[in-house]
Amino acid sequence: MQALRWANLILAALAVLPAAAHVLELPSKLTLDGPLWLAVQQLLYRGWGPFYGAPVEIGALLTSVALLVSRRRDPAAWRATVIATAAYIGMLAAFFIFNQPVNQAFAQWTPASLPPDWPAYRRQWETGHAVAFVFSVVGLVAVARGWLIDRDRSARPRRLHA
User: Fold this and answer.
1) Per residue in 25-53, pLDDT tens?
2) What CA–CA distance (Å, rounded) separates 12 from 155?
3) Domain extents for the chain?
4) Per-residue pLDDT tens over the stretch 76-117
5) Listed residue (55, 48, 71) closest to 1, CA to CA
6) DSSP alpha helices (H): ranges in 30-117?
7) Separation of alpha carbons 157 and 139, rounded Å
8) How far apart are CA 4 and CA 150, in angstroms?
9) 17, 72, 116, 123: least CB-packed within 10 angstroms?
10) How far apart are CA 33 and CA 104, in angstroms?
């Protein structure tokens, strides 16, 4: 159980990093013209999703689900884990609702074929990452709360019943 809790906490922390990076770079990316924005999307972010984002977010979700089972007799830790699980489901939903459609669209674009409404695609993509960031922070806080509840419970001396 302790290894599972540590894995969950580490994955929760790792899940915040790319979402936070997207939010921090948002002001600068909004100043990019279409061809440069497209180049960033097609070149800079290649490989992030399949090699970092998806494994970390799915790992955080799966370890949270596993902790749901093991914490079912501890209402406080279980509630924190429900919140974490819901947050990771929310992160994945944000990706499929906001980001994946944009990723599929701009994969076929070139600077010459950039559609006139490309800023709407950029807004949708950035919104997805902002939403994912909020979910990732909620998930991390909930995971940390569950971890602290477990730690405090295991640190208390057990009473012997006569």
Assistant:
1) 999 999 999 999 999 999 988 888 888 99
2) 23
3) 2-154
4) 999 999 999 999 999 999 999 999 999 999 999 999 999 999
5) 71
6) 34-39, 48, 54-70, 75-94, 100-106
7) 30
8) 12
9) 116
10) 20
